[in-house]
Design brief:
- Helix content is 27%, strand content 47%.
- The chain is of the alpha+beta class.
- The chain has a 6-stranded mixed beta sheet.
- Helix 1 runs antiparallel to helix 2 and helix 2 runs antiparallel to helix 3.
- It is globular and about 45 Å long.
Length: 124
């Protein structure tokens, strides 16, 4: 499971957040997600890969973000989950977005790919 280490998956998450900060999220996640992947968002929406790519292409960029408390949860030799706390803000937001994130990765063709992403809003 060398490709699915805490360091590797956390780097992918930072790459994703950096893409969201520079309005490249749709292209980034369209390439990272498996064909059958979904994102479960805090507003109750469940989006497939195409819907994610489309919705992120039009989303306002994040101005800043912080990822803390990362934890790797091994699932099998070719899958693992990364759980962490995220805090992010957009310019002009009164309150930052704070949530627990879970990203499930699988190895496809020797490369980590995002199979499931879920957000849970927290107040602190």
């Amino acid at each position: 499971m060398t490709a699915l280490t805490l360091e590797t998956l956390l780097a992918l998450e930072h790459d994703g957040w950096n893409a969201l900060c520079s309005a490249r999220g749709g292209r980034f996640y369209g390439g990272l997600m498996t064909a059958e992947a979904v994102m479960v968002l805090v507003n109750g929406m469940v989006l497939d890969r195409d819907a994610v790519a489309t919705s992120l292409d039009g989303a306002p960029p994040w101005a800043e973000y912080e990822l803390t408390e990362p934890r790797l949860v091994p699932i099998s030799d070719d899958s693992a989950a990364l759980v962490y706390r995220a805090r992010a803000a957009r310019d002009g937001d009164a309150e930052p977005f704070t949530a627990l994130m879970t990203s499930v990765y699988v190895l496809r063709d020797g490369r980590p790919r995002l199979a499931l992403y879920q957000q849970t809003t927290i107040t602190h």
